[in-house]
Amino acid sequence: MHSEIEEFKIRHSISGIPLCFYSIVDGKTLDRKAKVSSRQELDVVLETNGLRSSWDQQWEEISRLTNPETNQYVDRGHINKFFVALAKELTEEAEEKVGKIQSILVDGIDSSEGSIWDILWNFYFFNDPALKNSSNEELSEPIATLSEPEPNISDQKYKVSLGLIDRLIGKSSQKSNFNTALFESDHSSWLERRRLAEAKVKSANEALQKWEQREAENARLLKARSKAIDELKSQYEAGNADAIVEYCDIALGMSNFPDCIQNIYDLEYTPSTQTLLIEFLLPNVEDLPKIKEWKYTATKGLLSAKELSVADLNKLYDEAIYQISLRVIHEIFDSDKGNYIDGIVFNGRVVFTNKSTGHEESACIISIQASKDEFLAINLSKVVAKDCFKLLKGVGSSKLHGMSAIAPVMSMRREDGRFVSAQEVASTVNESTNLAAMDWQDFEHLIREIFEKEFSINGGEVKITQASRDGGVDAVAFDPDPIRGGKIVIQAKRYTNTVDVSAVRDLWGTVDHEGAMKGILVTTSDYGPDAYNFIKGKPLVLLNGANLLHLLEKHGHKARIDIQEAKLMNG
Questions:
Q1: Residue among 536, 526, 486 nearest 503 (CA)
Q2: H or E segment at 198?
Q3: How many angstroms separate the CA atoms of 317 and 365, rounded?
Q4: What is the pTM of this model?
Q5: C-alpha–C-alpha distance, residues 418 and 146, integer Å
Q6: How does DSSP classify residue 317?
Q7: How many CB atoms lie within 10 A of CB 331?
Q8: Quick check: 142 and 196 in contact, CB under 8 A?
Q9: Dihedral in degrees, nearest 10, Cα atoms 256, 11, 514, 13
Q10: Residue 398: helix, strand or coil by DSSP?
Q11: 81-124 per-position pLDDT tens digit
Q12: How far is residue 75's CA from residue 80's CA, in Å, rounded to a whole number?
């Protein structure tokens, strides 16, 4: 039922380290679900466990009271009292969800937490020190058990004392001098205690070893993070355009929107005009909370939900979209401590199902341009979002919930000075071609060409970058799909040895730096377990030699991979 603690699903992180953690807590039914998030993993763990325990206990009580076999023994007044209280609690939760949508702008204004650099430097990982202490305490008893001497049948305890009569009538020669039954019982008990103690010691030592490994990994990550933050801060203060985009990415990525807003976006900065373009994925009407109240009817024993009317839901949606646009602009201007941004263009896009065709579509439904001086002169805490949007000459239909597409004030460019002219090499590849022995530049062009065919199915495009034998970006794909698409980094490794996990870490850092949605690493060889463990929970895809041959064959090309032959040819 419950998810594990995961990285917050935002595109940006520092040196491969997430900006936030989150957990989804599911109430099993009653439309009850909560996302617990924090930049500190320990906070998420504690709050998640508390909420799960509370909801699980409540659900057990609901199951008990609604079970015909048990509720006949429960006082009807108790049942009514329980469900009246539950309806009240659920109503408060529903009102809170709607309230968070209505206060998107105000909450964004009030949520300023100080310097972004301080927030990043103060980030820490959950590594419970109590585990180390408790491990030592838990080991004391089993260690003491292991030190117990093994019972010996010659011990005094097991010697049998013969009475005078036994000795006089000569029975001493007929009876055993030892109580073997008692010895065997004690020895069996000793062996079982020792077995359990050894198992406890082994389990505790394994847990402690894992804790120590995580502690070492945390230290490494924090060191890498600190170095990355220092480098980014230095580049940002120097006015580096890429660093400015990354800084804005972090600032916006930290924004704590209501759960129905995914906080997915793309950024583009024009240094000559100091303009930041934001392409933001807006929620759909169906994503908003719909329940406004819960009621319990005692006479029918029925707990039911009352939903917002269509008119109220549409009104809530329109207000939310106006507030999102203003809040995003506010958060960027507010965080622009280096004064590198004079203007912001916000384009709000939404993915929806066209009710006339039944097909999924994407449209820009809102667009606004704001200068810094003009925007900062507005008292956002007092404005009506729609009126403020109109004052700033924002563009959008009168009914945003109608999903009417508009022409954005400014569109995102795709030009990149690193891109070079593509070379067609796939036509030269045949069954005799050993990919592992290809010229490395030809191999990169082959990867670009094959992925271009793969992405062109959905209207995407792939461009190859300048020679990047140092492990940088080899190709960049642009997938137009508004949900799974965006910018995708592709790296090609014509290797004859197993690809080390460091190459996968480099890809993750490149995806992070490029602000990409996904990273794909392609090799002629294979990856080790560390590489596959590293990509868990990350938007990374590893394609080995077998996957590459299959992809080539899918697009009408056959080749082979012979690692040993390539090693001999490469000397």
A1: 526
A2: helix 180-237
A3: 12
A4: 0.60
A5: 66
A6: H
A7: 19
A8: yes
A9: 70
A10: coil
A11: 989 999 999 999 999 999 999 999 999 887 666 678 887 777 65
A12: 9
At 240-268, the pLDDT tens digits run 998 999 899 888 888 889 988 888 888 98
Nearest to 437 by CA among 545, 306, 342: 545
Strand partners, 268: 277
Query: How far is residue 473 from each of residues 242, 418, 502, measured CA to CA in Å?
Result: 15, 9, 15
Quick check: helix, strand or coil at residue 220? helix
Euclidean distance between the first and the last CA atom of the chain, given in angstroms as a whole number: 55
Residue 436 backbone class (left: φ over 0; alpha: ψ -120 to 50; beta: rest): alpha
C-alpha–C-alpha distance, residues 44 and 22, integer Å: 6
- Give the residue ranges of the chain where pLDDT is below 70: 1-20, 28, 31, 39, 71-72, 111-114, 123-138, 161-176, 412-426, 457-460, 463-473, 480-485, 570-571
Distance CA 288, CA 274 (A): 35
Tokens 């010996």 found at: 152
| Contact by Cβ (8 Å): 350, 367 | no
| DSSP line for 471-533 | TS--EEEEE--TTT-EEEEEEEE--SSPBPHHHHHHHHHHHHHHT-SEEEEEESS-B-HHHHH
- Rounded to whole angstroms, how far apart are CA atoms 367 and 487? 21
Strands 343-353 and 360-371: antiparallel
> What residues contact 297, with CB distance under 8 A and at least 6 apart?
304
H or E element, residue 346 = strand 343-353
User: Are the C-beta atoms of 514 and 491 separated by less than 8 Å?
Assistant: no
Listed residue (15, 262, 256, 248) closest to 121, CA to CA? 15
Name the β-bridge partners of 79.
Answer: none
Q: Which helix (H) or strand (E) holds 348?
A: strand 343-353
Q: What is the 3-state secondary structure (H, E, C) of 320-335?
A: HHHHHHHHHHHHHHHH
CATH of domain 426-569: 3.40.1350.10
* Residue 330 phi, psi dihedral angles, 5° rounding: -60, -45
- The owner of tokens 């392609």 is 522
Distance CA 29, CA 59 (A): 9
